[in-house]
Amino acid sequence: MMSAGDLYRQIADRDNIRLAFLKAARGKQARRDVIDFRKNFEENIEKIHGQLEDRNPDIGHYRYFQVYDPKKRLICAASFPERVLHHAIMNICEPVLESYAIYDSYACRKGKGGQKAILRAQEFAGRFDWFLKLDVRKYFDSIDHAILLGALARRFREKDILLLFEKIMSSYEVETGKGLPIGNLISQHLANFYLSVFDHWIKEERKVRGYVRYMDDFLIFDDDRDKLMHVELPAIKDFLQARLSLTVKPDIQMNRCARGIPFLGYRVFPQKILLSPRSKRRFVNKFRLYEGKQMNGEWSVDELVRHMDSLLEFTRFADSDGFRRNVISRFGVLS
User: Fold this and answer.
1) How far apart are CA 229 and CA 233, in angstroms?
2) Kindly report the CA angle at 67 between 312 and 79, in degrees rounded to 5?
3) Rounded to whole angstroms, how far apart are CA atoms 81 and 58?
């Protein structure tokens, strides 16, 4: 087990909390809750410090709303002071979680991310004939608090750290002892960590050479179709259910890599990356929505450009120049 002593003291350190504020406020300087926090900055820093010193952080102040991007999700946004607390915790604890991650886990990790996962999938698509694509049914809602705490206890020695994680987990449940909220920094990191034991099992016990995971979406590659379907798939289902209380979605996908791999909004081929049909529809709908907001005066040109940048960046990663030009020529007011 990795030594992780004295971490709680580092979390509660005032300078760490000040750094956490800067991270939580990044890109949100004009928001009312950020402005309010800054008005009494040192007092608020001291308040979070004192709560941590007393082992009684103020958490659970969530705001709920739904998004449809691309499917319906319930987002659980913590209050701004709580987001500062989350950053303070992860400033110190993230390296411990990172130390247990395998190379081919790509979510919530510095230097990784969705595009790196896509490129790795493309690399494996050129090396293997077949792929098996799986994801977990209602992943965030299915995460078992006791199992997660047990995994954390194997990485952290300090009781205060574990109690802090337990308190954060217990502030949200979809049923007794289950569920992490979508939309919180710590939830994202813990959800990614939850499947780390599966990563190690796949690589070290199953000896799978071609494997890519982005949160609960994962790909397994092999040259033997029957091995993927009749050996690896049953073993994976059994492991996830027995060890992590998770269920694989029934819409399992398996095909030749040469026919394209649907992954993270793209269709990945050995020699090219295309947008998925759903991503194309999403791009058109959002493009028209954003342009409409600027045309009716809801957004300034600067606001339009800021929102368009990330939307266009997603398409630029794929071989989609013709598609993008066509959409802009049909619906755009800005080139």
Assistant:
1) 5
2) 105
3) 9
Tokens at residue 170, please?
């217990």
Q: Give pLDDT tens digits for 13-31.
A: 999 999 999 999 998 888 9
Which contacts of 226-233 are long-range, i.e. CB under 8 A and separated by 24 or more positions?
A: 228/130, 228/132, 228/254, 229/132, 229/254, 232/132, 232/206, 232/208, 233/132, 233/134
Per-residue DSSP letter, 79:
P
- Write the pLDDT tens digit of every residue in 235-247: 999 999 999 999 9
**Is residue 78 within 8 Å of 90, Cβ to Cβ?**
no
- Could you say which residues of the chain have pLDDT below 50? 1-4, 333-335
Distance between CA 201 and CA 39 in Å, rounded? 49
Coil, strand, or helix at residue 144? strand
Q: Tell me which residue has tokens 């977990």.
A: 136
Alpha carbons 215 and 193: distance in angstroms, whole number: 9
Q: Please say whether the beta carbons of 187 and 97 come within 8 A.
A: no
**Tokens 């992954």, residue located:** 263
- With tokens 């800021």, the residue in question is 306
Beta bridge partners of 254: 132
Burial-class residue 333 by CB neighbours within 10 Å (0-12, 13-18, 19+).
exposed
Q: Return d(Cα 144, Cα 148) in angstroms, integer.
A: 6
Instruction: Note the pLDDT of residue 20.
Output: 97
Which residues lie below 8 Å from residue 223, measured CB to CB, with a gap of 6+? 128, 129, 130
Q: What pLDDT shows up at residue 307?
A: 81
122's CB contacts (< 8 A; 6+ apart) are 268, 269, 270, 273
* Helix extents (H) in the chain: 7-12, 14-25, 32-39, 41-53, 80-98, 114-127, 139-142, 145-153, 159-170, 185-194, 196-200, 225-227, 233-244, 277-295, 301-316, 321-331
What is residue 331's predicted lDDT score, i.e. its pLDDT? 66
